[in-house]
Amino acid sequence: EVYRASTYAPVNIAVVKYWGKRDTTLNLPTNSSLSVTLSQDDLRTHTTASCSPTFTADSLTLNGNPQDITTPRTQACLRELRALRHALETSNPSLPKLSTMSLRLTSANNFPTAAGLASSAAGFAALVRAIADLYALPTPPEDLSRIARQGSGSACRSLFGGYVAWNTGTSPDGSDSLAHLIAPASHWPDMRALLLITNPSQKAISSTAGMQQTVATSPLFPHRAAEIVPPRMRAMEKAILSRDFDSFATLTMKESNNFHACCADTHPPIFYMNDTSRACIRVCEALNVAAGRAVCAYTFDAGPNCVVYYLQADEQVVAGSFKGLVGEGKEGWEGKGVEARAAPQ
Ligand code: DP6
């Protein structure tokens, strides 16, 4: 007999960035972060979790390719989920003993993996939710976010839709370092995201390695964590709650700039953006200056691809302005220079 559950998890793009860990084993961040969850019609991981007494070992595939399931991060997630299932089975002995069976996990992304498009976020969120569903765990999303965080920090924010904050927490065991919903997507229905794929290939330095180099060598970084991010978290939450796009956009762009300044301040320096990325910034700036208000906001993660936030009313001017920089249509994910539009989910 095979037990099975399938789920989707969406990509999230941070507008206040997580960069730096205070605990590398538990994935505890140096600062809080805040993200917008993209629609899972557009960018998502789909994961099926199954288990059976006939399976002989845990296994994981991504887009059909076998992955290492023995990494400490994946093992931490599996251990926590099995413990929760074990507790259920102990209190209800009639339940099948799924916690003792090997797991088979199959995942598929509909976007380029590790191109700085938060693939690990959707990946670990989908993995955790699929197993939680398979195990019929009554665990609320906040608690699942604590588990997904141990797979990849940003994954804790993909257990929710809409606008999500991840508070650093203060406890050394990480029990209070979890994500919570600021507002559902329906709170700001005309918010849109445009993804400009300036280079879909694998990134040079992973987030995990890059952020640790920054923590170890950047003199700008402690200032960012202590002085810049905390007031920015409060201002961003306020901008979202009051649907103030001007403030949202300004904070988002300043935050991306400060994050990439810390990357440049790392020794040796880390450069995630390319010439096309910088051209995207200039187009955004020109649009905002010409309109005399914030029309769009750019942000870049640990890669050269640009995410542009804008409001539905400005769709024509925003989409038209980036046409010359990148091509059009989601089909070309594997090619260079594609764009895709997404609504928050
Ligand atoms: C720049 O979550 O990929 O996208 O916890 O080591 O897996 P690990 O790092 P990861 O880092 C994401 C960094 C970022 C900013 C963000 O998403 O907040």
UniProtKB/TrEMBL annotation:
Catalyzed chemical reaction(s): (R)-5-diphosphomevalonate + ATP = isopentenyl diphosphate + ADP + phosphate + CO2
A single GO BP: isopentenyl diphosphate biosynthetic process, mevalonate pathway
Residue ranges constituting the Mvd1 C-terminal domain according to the UniProt record: 193-345
InterPro entries linked to this entry: GHMP_kinase_C_sf (IPR036554), Mev_decarb (IPR005935), Mev_diP_decarb (IPR029765), MVD-like_N (IPR053859), Mvd1_C (IPR041431), Ribosomal_Su5_D2-typ_SF (IPR020568), Ribsml_uS5_D2-typ_fold_subgr (IPR014721)
Known pathway: Isoprenoid biosynthesis; isopentenyl diphosphate biosynthesis via mevalonate pathway; isopentenyl diphosphate from (R)-mevalonate: step 3/3
Highest rank taxon of the organism: Eukaryota
GO CC terms of this entry: cytosol
Keyword annotations from UniProtKB, A to Z: ATP-binding, Lipid biosynthesis, Lipid metabolism, Lyase, Nucleotide-binding, Steroid biosynthesis, Steroid metabolism, Sterol biosynthesis, Sterol metabolism
One term of GO molecular function: ATP binding
Enzyme Commission number, as recorded: 4.1.1.33
The Diphosphomevalonate decarboxylase-like N-terminal domain, residue ranges: 9-179
NCBIfam families reported for this sequence: mevDPdecarb
Family: Belongs to the diphosphomevalonate decarboxylase family.
Protein's UniProt name: Diphosphomevalonate decarboxylase
Annotated organism of origin: Salinomyces thailandicus
